[in-house]
């Protein structure tokens, strides 16, 4: 991509509601555009990051046998009435022109359960963990929130990965739940999220017995988390107390004092049990020919919120830091001046593109400082800077700027393609 | 994928509204599940087809420099008021809990125009065709239709690729429009759609001057198309007459009689001009420092309708026929009996999967006839059938069943992996 063709808005004029560094970076770097309150357009730049996040989520879920599918954004209200959830506050209801009561789905337990009951007949269709039946989708959700905040952190419309598993026993549910708990940590690791912990969570509207949240520990978080100073106990405040207690609490496991932290919830998992399967009359025939109700788990990752969190953990509002897997472009080529540097830059661009690498190139007449500032906003981990001064010395400058380290090297200009490819291979 | 793990419903009990062979095949083969009237869930099998269609659409649009992005499904009604389209019948309107008038978008002209006006300043950002600015997305749309019909052919919610281009002149718009017209034919070709023609179309609600529809000629189509018996004139009935004339008309170009056909619209393209850019106050500064209004084109492909059309053009309601690029699985392995055939099948499955081929395997105890019937419903073009009888003869049976041809071969069992790979390479 030629940087001058990338149709995004880089702006210094930030709205008053952009208070976090990630929200500022999202707007300043042109990753998103606010179409309405809590409603965002992902620019061609932002959409690349979103797709890269989705790819990692898919790969890890597919690896444990989850099956991707796609359910409608709009559904009949009747499905929600079956479980008694038709009055939850974020559920947007409307009547269609054909006179049908419908909703824009904020989550899909009812919809997936309706799908499963249309198919499920025998216990043989619910294999034991780890090959349990688990269906998932990555899809737009709408929650009719009273307040949106912090850009991608709390939107009305957002991208979510939601998975649903079905089992013949609580043991199987529990086994599979733990598999997914580990898969989630692997996903956040691969995404380059620095500080995500799993904590005990309340079950709330969802029903069920056990739940964990995945929290990115961050000052901008809305949630209060307690972690034990001694043992491995970690929990959402709501698990520990019904009151709005502001005091430091004592660990219910070992009695030692708890640390109080703030966090952004980037995922949650629930052992739902039979709340949905029972009220929606899902049944299978067991080994003895007896009708049984399956138990269910559900597993969410806020894909667009993860994007927001990656921007929050970037260096500051002027510098995006992604790992190679998530970065919208892997290499950013900058040439200074019009002569040989530009020719070499274009040759490198053509060669890397042919090799299947996603590259952005800046051979514009902009000042060098402005080019570097744009490269910081775009966040390609590898930058190749080709200037007349360095060409004279027979080298170009290679900078790596990733999540955990930064370094720069001068590489022989005769070795420009191989030199960059070597760094790509090393850092991937 | 082991066929017994694929969580879909194959059913013989079809609803009364499933009247076309494609709609029947979609349900019988378990590609979709009806969540509500005109609201479908794509099963793990159906979603694979949908993704394969999307991949081809993406590749061809990216190849001509279009930039993928993503706009919200829900938007403020205020954007629709700017163009006076707030009263079109399929527009679903609602009030949010926060008191904002909002819509579920049936199309995104207003939304993309709002994005573009937030960025566009100079003519330099609108390069001449073929490098024109064109933004697109593949996304869920909702149209509040009074009647849904024929499964994926006319849904309320559907998957659409919508692209929008912006230009400094009608000439550039026209050039780019013709590029996209050719890209569309390439897309339909690659998808294996047999009988798609472009015809002159009315501009209708969209405004603008010139429009073409891409119609799959089919008896199940809702649209009436006229094609000239002599020259290349082809048009939608609505272009030719305002009356509900049932008579054969005469070609307006050469005066010869017209043929009357039925078609399903699988794409449409419009030269919109300044209808949206003018009413929404989009402006750029030209070479002379003068403010100008850009002209605009828009380009849609009904991705889920294309899926429906591919099922319609399949052999019948019991046999899906896809090309290699679109098929949910490329190879379907069937073993008969429990002994060596099963072992060889599993070995072939492991080897093909390692080679990155999407394979489905049936080593179940089902009757051979039932296995073949399921393979017909799934529509993998290549089938490898391994039976004790053929093993005795030192061979296995390889069947290819694609869009344009069918053939079968007996290949040496010693050569099983290479034999299948050779067919894959030949037919890809």
Please outline what is shown here.
Chain A has twelve helices and 21 strands. Chain A has 428 residues and is α+β, with helices and mostly antiparallel strands.
N-C termini distance of chain A: 20 Å
| CATH fold call of the largest domain in chain A | BirA Bifunctional Protein, domain 2
Strand content of chain A: 25-35%
- CA radius of gyration of chain A is 25 Å
The low-confidence parts of chain A are none
**Broad structural category of chain A:** alpha+beta
Shape of chain A: elongated
Q: Can you identify the CATH class of the largest domain in chain A?
A: Alpha Beta
Q: Largest sheet of chain A, described in full?
A: 9 strands, mixed
Number of structural domains of chain A: 2
Can you put this structure into words, describing what you see?
The structure is a homodimer of 428-residue chains. Chain A is of the alpha+beta class. The first copy, chain A, has two domains: 10-312, Bira Bifunctional Protein, Domain 2 (BirA Bifunctional Protein, domain 2); 331-427, Rossmann fold (3-Layer(aba) Sandwich). Chain A contains twelve helices and 21 strands. The first copy, chain A, has helices spanning 21-28, 44-63, 77-82, 109-117, 170-191, 237-240, 275-279, 303-312, 340-354, 368-378, 388-392, 416-427; strands spanning 32-36, 39-42, 67-68, 74-76, 92-95, 101-104, 133-142, 157-167, 196-200, 210-217, 223-228, 234-236, 258-273, 284-285, 291-292, 295-302, 331-335, 359-362, 382-386, 395-401, 406-412. In chain A, the strands form five sheets. In chain A, strands 3, 7, 8, 9, 10, 11, 12, 13 and 16 form a nine-stranded mixed β-sheet that branches. A five-stranded mixed β-sheet of chain A has the order 18-17-19-20-21, with helices on both faces. In chain A, helix 1 (21-28) packs across helix 8 (303-312), helix 2 runs antiparallel to helix 5 (170-191) and helix 2 (44-63) crosses helix 8. Chain A starts with 20 loop residues before the first helix and ends with a helix. The relative contact order of chain A is 0.13. The mean pLDDT of chain A is 94. At the A-B interface, strand 1, strand 2, helix 2, strand 3 and strand 4 of A face strand 1, strand 2, helix 2, strand 3 and strand 4 of B.
């Amino acid at each position: 991509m030629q940087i001058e063709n990338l149709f995004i808005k880089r702006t210094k004029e930030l709205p008053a509601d952009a208070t976090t560094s990630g929200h500022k970076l999202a707007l300043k770097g042109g990753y998103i555009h606010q179409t309405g309150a809590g409603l965002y357009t992902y620019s061609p730049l932002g959409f690349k990051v979103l797709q890269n996040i989705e790819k990692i989520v898919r790969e890890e879920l597919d690896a444990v046998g989850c099956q991707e599918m796609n359910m409608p954004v709009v559904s009949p209200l009747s499905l929600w009435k079956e479980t008694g959830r038709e009055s939850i506050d974020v559920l947007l209801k409307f009547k269609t022109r054909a006179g049908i009561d419908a909703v824009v789905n904020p989550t899909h337990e009812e919809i997936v359960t309706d799908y499963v009951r249309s198919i499920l007949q025998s216990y043989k269709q619910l294999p034991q963990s780890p090959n349990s039946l688990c269906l998932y989708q990555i899809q737009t959700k709408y929650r009719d929130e009273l307040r949106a905040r912090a850009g991608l952190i709390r939107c009305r419309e957002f991208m979510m990965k939601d998975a649903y598993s079905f089992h013949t026993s609580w043991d199987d549910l529990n086994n599979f739940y733990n598999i997914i708990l580990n898969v989630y940590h692997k996903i956040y690791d691969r995404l380059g999220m620095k500080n995500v912990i799993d904590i005990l969570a309340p079950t709330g509207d969802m029903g069920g017995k056990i739940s964990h949240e995945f929290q990115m520990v961050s000052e901008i978080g809305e949630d209060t988390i307690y972690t034990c100073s001694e043992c491995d106990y970690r929990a959402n405040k709501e698990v520990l107390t019904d009151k709005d207690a502001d005091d430091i609490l004592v660990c219910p496991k070992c009695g030692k004092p708890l640390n109080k932290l703030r966090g952004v919830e980037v995922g949650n998992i629930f052992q739902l049990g039979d709340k949905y399967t029972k009220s929606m009359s899902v049944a299978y025939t067991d080994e003895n020919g007896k009708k049984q109700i399956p138990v269910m788990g559900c597993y969410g990752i806020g894909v667009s919120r993860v994007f927001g969190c990656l921007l929050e953990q970037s260096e500051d509002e002027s510098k995006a830091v992604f790992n190679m897997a998530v970065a919208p472009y892997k290499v950013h080529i900058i040439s200074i001046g019009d002569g040989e540097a530009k020719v070499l830059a274009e040759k490198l661009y053509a060669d890397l593109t042919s090799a299947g690498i996603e590259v952005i190139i800046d051979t514009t007449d902009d000042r060098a400082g402005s080019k570097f500032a744009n490269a910081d906003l775009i966040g390609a981990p590898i930058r190749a800077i080709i200037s007349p001064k360095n060409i004279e010395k027979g080298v170009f400058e290679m900078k790596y700027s990733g999540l955990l380290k930064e370094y720069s090297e001068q590489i022989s200009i005769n070795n420009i393609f191989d030199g960059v490819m070597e760094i790509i291979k090393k850092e991937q």
